[in-house]
Amino acid sequence: MAAAIRQPGWYRGAIGLVLGAAFGFGLVIALRAISGLDLFQTEQTGYPHVVVPLITAPFGFLFGFGAFDYWFRWAAGKPTIPEDHSGHGAYSWKDYFKFNTDHKVIGTQYVVTTLFFFLIGGLLALLMRAELAQPGAQIVAASTFNGLFSTHAVVMIFLFIIPVFAGLANYVLPLMIGAPDMAFPRLNALSFWLLPIAGLIFIGSFLAPGGAFDAGWTGYAPLSTGAPLGQSFFNIGVQFAGASSIATALNFLVTIITMRAPGMNLWRMPLLVWANLSTSLLVVGATPFVAGAQFMVFFDRILGMNFFNFLEGGDVISYQHIFWFYSHPAVYIMMLPGFGIISEIISTHARKPVFGYRLMALALIGIVVLSYSVWAHHMFVAGMFSWLRVPIMITTLLIAVPTGIKVFSWLGTLFYGKIHTYSTAMLFALAFIITFTVGGISGVMLGMIPIDIHVSDTYFVVAHIHFVLFGGSVFTIFAGIYHWFPKMTGRMYDERLGRIHFWGTVIGTWLAFVPMHWIGMDGMPRRVADYATQYGDWNLLISVSAFALGAVQLVFLYNMIVSWRFGPKAGNNPWRANSIEWQVTSPPPVFNFDEIPRVVGGPYEYGTPGARHAIMGGEDEGAEVPETKPSTVTAPS
Amino acid sequence: MVLAVLVLGVVQSVILLQFDWFGEAAATEAAPIDTMMDVTVVISSFIFAIVCVALGYALIKWRAKPGDESDGLPIHGNTKLEIIWTIIPVIIVLGLGGYSWAVLDDIEKTDENALHVNAYAQQFAWTFGYPEDGNKWSEGVLHVPVNRQVIFDLQAQDVIHSFWVPEWRIKKDAVPGLATDAVVTPDKEGTYQLVCAELCGIGHTTMRAYVIVESEEKYEAWLSKQTTEVPTSLLKTKDEYLEAEAKEQEESGGIEGSGVVEE
Asked: How far, in Å, are A468, B34, B128 from residue B141 at the CA level?
């Protein structure tokens, strides 16, 4: 037992958690006692004895769990424990509950954890839809309702969409570029373990006096600066989720820039790698802004600062500028990795090179640059400088151009291909093109100021974000999970169940989210627990569809869980794909490659006889394989 | 394929134009915005048709037969085509941008004879002040004359609210510590609802006010009957505000969602 407590792990983690909480609590009480204040301050924006332990307890857990052991020894000048690779690979389910530094294990941890939070976020949405099925108040009180939509959004954004992409890329990206692991494996593991902490803090806010944070996921000041204790949980949770996000992005940047296999120049990187490079640039540049915005709200609440207190000269609008300077790029953080996934899947299953590969890569970079210049389109009616509206409208509309290039290039990839639709991954990729186009079109409408003046803060916006985030991001997530499931587990999922899930999801998405456009344009505001009776029928349809959409996700979970355990062996390359991750075993060996592969051509050389993307170690070394040049066949007229 | 795009685009446009998307219109600002929506709907219909037809066509024409393990043609791109589908969208969006700018200028033109009305928003009620014609006040009910431009000077007392009458198509946030305004020319008599469109706390759902657009005479008659006394619910200055805040907290032991940090 004593040995178990000294070893990094759950026992030591639990002790660290308790000690961390006790330290934070004791610190507050001691300081208040010294200052001659009441020991407990329980104004709703206060509770220092709760919020300080909320910061210290997670660190205590991480110390105990072993997240910092190696670094501390190194920093203290002690001999570091030689890497014995005990933290690599997963041989039983228990290995997934350790501080594991193997990028493949971390990738799986990410995907499973985020799917868990996807379920939680979905259940919160269904509670909301239950309330909204009929006009009038039935199930939850107005304050609870505000908490529901706030936590729904926060869980889905910070604990599902952003990290699930990081998880998928964690698994496949090092394999794709021929690297043995990520650049910073220990930082990678720390990034993952910050996530469940953020999740527990967000969900835990339901237990706070006054309920969960209820100022929306946007948390506009001054509503948020005066809100009950739950809002502080949001402020702190965002710091953990944001730190996780930033650390992962740095890791991806360094990995992509420095660890590509010999021969993989920029123009030979698969588009998923390009997509994660772009996303990471956005995360590193923008995420500090949301962290800053939440810290400022937190300081206003806890320390009585006046960043956003208009009575003391604070500037209310500045919160929105800082918040959206992250949160608009965040929309692309939630979309660009999906673009990469779709490019991989469509090229593989249409047996054709991605159409206009270089322009596809440049379009990603174009979106990164433009997305830093569009934040204020969320504020057309917010009372900001009126001169800023038109320039922001122009950049907002222009961002449709690189996005359009991507859609047209995917369609171009299909032309003259051999399109295989047996895979659920490909079905989701094709459906994504259509649903995402709808989300893109409504986005252009929202970008046009006169239309936006009428529809902003209505259900039209709700419809738009769900077409972009559900019909867009979540479809690509499903596509990606189905596509790489055989690689990650070594087993094949059930395509029949996959199809049920696919059709249920597509139909559910359209029925649930299309009518939201209509009621929004007709005058139903968003974030309301009750509405005029004239919207009753549409809301009933939306609620019923939402429940069906939720139910069909159980088919997906069943398929994944059962196939992981009992599915037929998948083989190394069930999709006959070209990129490197498919050239190793499924699941890949612990150290990925016995010998680093050599990249000799582009990633999508389908249809060119003898063309290769990479030569794997162990293949006949003597034979000289010529560098492959992209062929120059043009379309037959 | 071109024909299919045209047919689908036209059919979609015709169907979608049958609907009155934004509902009833009751202000002169509504017409250009509604027209703009129709134009956008038509353009969107054709873009959507292009994507659907291209996808459907590819799926019908180039779907692999079962067991076919051959690859597609190794086409890596087509510079001319790529330039076309970069340039044309640029032209379309810049056109829409210019059009939006023109409409925006049009709907925000102010008239010298405009009636100024102060709209005060607080959790969770609207109060209206009529500084012209003898400083009259009205709680929860807004009366305005028809066919005369009204400039609403918006003020928020606690958190951000948003002034929106769907039939007028105009929305503007009321922001604490910041003067904002909304310009509307109601052109249809009737009773409408003023909706708070920005989440402002637990009562957000019910934060509504009646809007009555009536003839100049009826409006004048109504106004003359209004009080000149500042409504007690309205807290004009910071001191009064803090005082009432403190009083209310004393009474109820804390209120939810107030924007005031303890001093």
From this structure: 39, 27, 8
